[in-house]
Structures are given as structure tokens and as C-alpha cells.
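Protocol step 4 of 5: obtain the predicted structure for the target chain.
Materials: sequence only (see below). No template structures provided, no constraints applied. The aim of this step is simply to have a reference model before the mutagenesis design in step 5. Sequence pasted as it appears in the construct record:
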Amino acid sequence: MIEPIIRLSQVLKRYRGEAPVLNGVDLRIEKGEFVSLMGPSGSGKTTLLNLVSGLDRPDGGRVMLDGRDLGDLPDRQLADLRLRTIGFVFQGFNLLPALTVERNVGWPLQFAGCSAREARERATAALLRVGITNQGGRYPSELSGGEQQRVAIARAIATRPSILLADEPTGNLDSRTGQNILDLLRALNLADGVTIMMVTHNALAAAYGDRTLEIHDGRIIRDVRVPSEQHKVAALVGAGR
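Step 4 output (C-alpha cells):
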């Protein structure tokens, strides 16, 4: 059997001795899947992303990423794994206001060992990939919310990650702009084979994925595969057609 790109086995996570935020979670995500995570606030969705990324460590169980047990990796190797393997997209964009668009996208590349020239070239290519052209010299405050999120996605994919973790990526956007971002994420998934885990409260957004996981009280209570026809419906409804 081929090893999944993400595998969780009986994962437990609790904070300050409280009830577990995640309680015995088992999960397999195959390479190239687009998985949506839904559930009420506090159900453990963001905690799950943090564990997959190695930003947090489980209190029990195992988190495997592309065959590697994250529990066996020291902090420095985890940081390198995040830099080279995982891209992050957040609800709040998290762009650095003092840096231009190009430098916001390019600075992780220099941390990854790229020369300044290569970082500029790859940043430009990533911006073009997400539909941002001729704006590399502008600052985040000069962009719309949708443009800022596209820049954030460009930053996430510039390192050519195999996994993209998105936490409410359309939460701060109007419905039309949000749908454009979802279209972009789906295109990256289909064209580039990027594995995506996306937290969302929106059932229509969740339908862009191949699977929807429903999390409640720290457990996955439902794992539903989304029919391909439903992707088309989600896109049509989101576009108002």
C-alpha cells in the first residue's frame, strides 16, 4: 500500500490540562487530495492544521508527513520541513506591511537558500500564477483584500510546496472575491497536484474539495467524499450563475 502524504494515528492534543482538543484522531490524506475541514469553533480544526504542519506537537499518537514521523524531528528539522514542504494561507493574509509585494513573496525563498535574483524570479512567477501582474513594487496597504490574499497564496506556493494548509482563506473576503480564491486553490490542486487541507465554516466553500471532514468535540464524526458534479455546482452558485 502506498504511504499517504498525511497520516494521523490516534492523535491526542490538550492544552493546560483541559479536555482534549483532539481526541484519538485517525486520518489518511492521499497525495493530491483537496480536503475541507468543517466544524464549530473550538472543535479542533486549526489545531489539526497546526499538528500537520509541526507548529504544535501531539500529546499522544503519531503525525506522519510523507512517511516521516514529526515526533522524531527536532525543532530545526521541523522548521526546514515547513519551509520547503508546506505552504500556509491564513484568513488575515499575514503580509508584512513594510515590504513590497515582491519582497513579501520572495523572503521565504531566501531563507530556503535561494539567491536574491532567483528569489525575485520565482516571486514574479508565483505572482503571475495567481493573477497578480505589474504590482510587485506596491505595498499590501495599496491592494484590495482579494489581491492581498492572492499575494499570500503566491508566497505560499513560491517555495513549491507539496502541501498547502489554508485556514479560513476566504473568511475576510466578500462572496465573489472569495469564490475567485477558491477557484484559484482548486486550480492549483488540479494543475500542480498540490495537496490541500482547508478549514472553512462555509459549506459551499467546502464543496470545492474532494472530501469534507466534519470535526466535533475533537473527533472526526463524518468523512464525506464530494461528487465531482458538486464541484461544478459550487462554482456556479459562487459565481452567481
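Step 4 remarks: The first strand starts at residue 6 and ends at 13. Residues 175-192 form the longest helix (18 residues).
Proceed to step 5.
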